[in-house]
């Protein structure tokens, strides 16, 4: 049975889609990079965050705000 990004097989194993390439990933110790299928997909995702291609939605744009300046700690 599948619900969104997760699927349950045999009432025991949960399978999710890799956020980068959409390959199925078993949610267990067998998948050390979960929810990613591989280190490569994990690093691609990290790079997208670092390049600000991804961000957490916010009502206010604080990226250029004074609260992020070096004079405030």
From TrEMBL:
InterPro entries the UniProt entry points to: DNA_gyrase_inhibitor_YacG, Znf_NHR/GATA
Cofactor: binding comment: Binds 1 zinc ion.
Keywords associated with the record: Metal-binding, Zinc
Cofactor entry: Zn(2+)
Highest taxon listed in the record's lineage: Bacteria
Chain segments carrying region Disordered: 54-73
Residues spanning the signal sequence: none
Any single biological process term in GO: regulation of DNA-templated transcription
Record-listed Zn(2+) binding positions: 18, 21, 37, 41
GO molecular function: DNA topoisomerase type II (double strand cut, ATP-hydrolyzing) inhibitor activity; zinc ion binding
Pfam families registered for this protein in UniProt: YacG
Function: Inhibits all the catalytic activities of DNA gyrase by preventing its interaction with DNA. Acts by binding directly to the C-terminal domain of GyrB, which probably disrupts DNA binding by the gyrase.
Subunit structure: Interacts with GyrB.
Similarity field: Belongs to the DNA gyrase inhibitor YacG family.
Name assigned to this protein: DNA gyrase inhibitor YacG
Organism: Dickeya chrysanthemi (strain Ech1591) (Dickeya zeae (strain Ech1591))
Gene: yacG
């Amino acid at each position: 049975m599948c619900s969104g990004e997760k699927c349950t097989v045999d009432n025991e194993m949960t399978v999710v889609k890799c956020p980068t390439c959409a390959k199925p990933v078993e949610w267990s110790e067998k998948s050390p990079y979960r929810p990613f299928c591989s280190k490569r997909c994990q690093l691609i995702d990290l790079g997208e965050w670092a390049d600000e291609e991804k961000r957490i939605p916010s009502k206010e744009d604080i990226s250029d705000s004074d609260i992020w300046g070096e004079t405030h700690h």
